[in-house]
Design brief:
Blueprint (H helix, E strand, L loop, with lengths): L14 H20 L4 H53 L9 H21 L8 H38 L3 H28 L13
Pfam families: ATP-synt_C (PF00137)
Family: Belongs to the V-ATPase proteolipid subunit family.
Protein name: V-type proton ATPase proteolipid subunit
Length: 211
């Protein structure tokens, strides 16, 4: 409601004040009528909306990278180790259950990506800046690529390890130690991803706060 809609007769004491407000409203309306709208105003609004969409898309890319790359590593490790276990089972079927450990450790890598992907996806619908979007993209890539590398290592070591264990059972302990160090690579990526996700806060210095 503007000052022109106020009935000054109901409160004569404040009539001068309301009169000044009416003059201000009149000047503002005249100024708005003679103001030339900048052609860049609409472009600025659309740019902000595009940045909001871009931030959410980057967030989704981080969520996707976390689960996709870790599952790629887990699938390679499982398949590569499974081939070796199948070949080893022909010679030593009594060691079949004992040598399934590489497959189990390869499957754990996918859990790392699932955890980070769920954490990142929780912020998809919330307002975010490009800063947060890129930080969460980095978190997804950290756990994803680390899990991919760990999966490749587990697959190669598991395949060769179970074949060697079939011929020399003493190699089993050494294979387990190598698998542990290969699994730790994915754990490093998980730790870094969790740290990045917890520190993905909107920074006013980065600008472009999006709603």
């Amino acid at each position: 409601m503007s000052a022109a809609d106020i009935n000054t007769e109901l409160c004569p004491v404040y009539a001068p004040f309301f009169g000044a407000m009416q003059a201000i409203d009149l000047r503002r309306n005249v100024a708005m009528q003679h103001t030339v709208r900048s052609p860049h105003a609409d472009h600025l609004v659309y740019s902000v909306l595009d940045l909001a969409t871009l931030a959410r898309r980057i967030n989704k890319q981080g969520c996707t990278a976390a689960i996709v790359f870790t599952c790629l590593g887990a699938s390679y490790g499982t398949s590569k180790s499974g081939v070796g276990i199948s070949a080893m089972g022909v010679l030593r079927p009594d060691l079949l259950i004992k040598c399934v450990i590489p497959v189990i450790m390869a499957g754990i890598i996918a859990i790392y990506g699932l955890v980070v992907s769920v954490l990142i996806s929780g912020d998809i619908k919330t307002p975010m800046s490009l800063y947060r979007g890129f930080i969460q993209l980095g978190a997804g890539l950290s756990v994803g690529l680390a899990g991919l590398a760990a999966g490749f290592a587990i697959g190669i070591v598991g395949d060769a390890g179970v074949r060697g264990t079939a011929q020399q059972p003493r190699l089993f302990i050494g294979m387990i130690l190598i698998l542990i160090f290969a699994e730790v690579l994915g754990l490093y990526g998980l730790i870094v991803a969790l740290i990045l996700n917890t520190r993905a806060q909107d920074d006013a210095l980065m600008g472009c706060f999006l709603k």
